[in-house]
Amino acid sequence: MALGPGKYDAEASEIRIRTNAAGVLLMILGGNQGTGFSVQASIAVQLNLPELLRLTADEIERELKS
Hints:
Blueprint: H1 9-19, E1 24-31, E2 34-40, H2 43-65
Antiparallel strand pairs: 1-2
């Protein structure tokens, strides 16, 4: 879930701190803890994630079709 720690919360923390990012959405496919994701961001950023993910999915789909 986007709320609360995910399987890869420690890795997301490391990336957020190392990059000085306002937020991190980390998606792992077939990692050493299985597939999962972690989100570290303010609630304001999290509220925008569904729209951002839809736009990203649309962009990926367009690029794959071209």
